[in-house]
Write a structure and sequence with these properties.
about 65% helix, mainly alpha, single chain
Length: about 70
């Protein structure tokens, strides 16, 4: 296994580059979807709708939750 790592950004080095933000956002989305343990069809629908609305999966699910609690109050 190769242990050489090409570091493209470190915390505290200023603004995160866009390509790093994209990777971090995608990883956060995948972790959220895995933690919810939803059926595959539901996961695919969430991904599709988030993409269609130009949102991250995290933002899309947050919107759904906030709307739910807004109507429940």
């Amino acid at each position: 296994m190769n242990s050489d790592v090409n570091v493209i950004w470190r915390k505290g080095e200023g603004d995160m580059p866009e390509k790093v933000k994209h990777v971090v956002s995608a990883a956060q989305d995948e972790l959220l979807l895995q933690s919810l343990q939803l059926p595959p069809d539901t996961v695919n629908t969430i991904r599709y709708n988030a993409n269609k609305n130009l949102q991250t999966v995290n933002d899309y699910i947050s919107t759904i939750v906030l709307d739910y609690f807004g109507t429940a109050v």
